[in-house]
Amino acid sequence: MSNNILQLLEQHNNWRKNCINLIASENVMSPIAEKIYVSDLMHRYAEGMPYKRYYQGLKYFDKIEDIATEFFKQHFQCDFADLRPISGTLANMAVFSALAKTGDNIITSGIDGGAHISHENPGAAGLLGFKITHFKFDQNYNLDLKDAKFKIKKLKPKFIVLGASVIPFPFPVKELKEICKTTNTKIIYDAAHVLGLICNGFFQNPLEEGADIITSSTHKTFPGPQGGLILGNIDNNLQKKIRNKIFPGVLSNHHLHRIPSLYIALSEMKKFGKDYASQIIKNAKTLAEELYNLEFDVLVKERGFTQSHQVLVNMKNKGGGDFVAKKLEEQNIIVNKNIIQGDKLNIANPSGIRIGVQEMTRFLMKQDEMKQIAEFIKKIIIDNKDIKQEVIEFRSKFQDIGFC
């Protein structure tokens, strides 16, 4: 049995090296971040806060976590940072439960508006028993400000969630801040997808624009180890409440080996992140434009297709998102099916696919390669050609990880 597992793992590793990965929620760590990810810390526990642990044996790790936490606070210019959540969803769970209780009103974007599942009834927000209302969006992913302000004033929600899982454009944080002040409503910004773009000024900075708290994962446009974090400018009482919701609330041990790699990832972003984020956005725009030129229904042409790493394509007339994603995978191009604005909530076969360019950008692909990828997608989906070997040969030229 163990031989089968090792063989399958080797097959997976080899296959993914031969694939063009366009999953918008994935990335790869640098060789040094990956190397230090594997350490004795993988075996250890650290319940509680640095220097105030419930276990012994952490005199070095306490310093590591303290240094890393201060590094994030300094870089993001905030007075609160917690790196302990082991996923973006658990970061959301901790913050949500610190701000509201069962039966309280909250407002989110809704799945068809791009919300992550943890913002909604099937996920964390629903498990916590909140009354969830949704913002309205038009077909171009513009949030209806008039409707949003009316709902905030009427419902006085404990918090609203901006940021999203589908996030081609910034959210109107500034525009909603004043009304939220009048209702004592906190603004949470889920930056899971765009943290790496925010990191060096290539996307809106939610905290500068008035968000109270950022929740995020650490492995999408921010190319760190898989995990989560919380950032914010909040008072000491709320800081303490969130920390208590993390532990002993939603987790015990926080996978200590992540923290040194997370520090390395931010160090790399400080040095190389501007070039990386700039190239991500250039690549996303180029891919969107080229797909559009090849007669795909790329969404939101009116807003320039995208301002992030994501490209959204309506594949309803090409068999639907599920069909297209599976057909591309057969040819070693990996995307995910996705509900798009105005779609019926058909989870099994939504109309759209969501494309992200951040991982292939880290493998040093640029605009010319995006044009080639668009041509590959056309050959597979429109021309119905078998080009798997062509894709493999193309990918073989991009094996080195950059921006580190």
Secondary-structure map:
Blueprint: H1 2-17, E1 20-21, H2 31-37, E2 48-49, E3 52-53, H3 59-76, E4 80-82, H4 88-99, E5 105-108, H5 124-127, E6 131-134, H6 145-155, E7 159-163, H7 173-182, E8 186-190, H8 195-198, H9 206-209, E9 213-217, E10 228-232, H10 236-250, H11 258-293, E11 297-298, E12 310-314, H12 321-330, E13 333-334, E14 336-338, E15 352-356, H13 358-362, H14 367-381, H15 388-395
Helix pairs in contact: 2-11, 3-11, 4-10, 6-7, 11-14
Helix coverage percent: 40-55%
Which geometry do the CA atoms define?
globular
Question: What value does the Rg take, in angstroms?
Answer: 21 Å
CATH topology of the largest domain: Aspartate Aminotransferase, domain 2
Briefly summarize what is shown.
This protein is α/β, with parallel strands linked by helices and 404 residues long. It has helices at residues 2-17, 31-37, 59-76, 88-99, 124-127, 145-155, 173-182, 195-198, 206-209, 236-250, 258-293, 321-330, 358-362, 367-381, 388-395, and strands spanning 20-21, 48-49, 52-53, 80-82, 105-108, 131-134, 159-163, 186-190, 213-217, 228-232, 297-298, 310-314, 333-334, 336-338, 352-356.
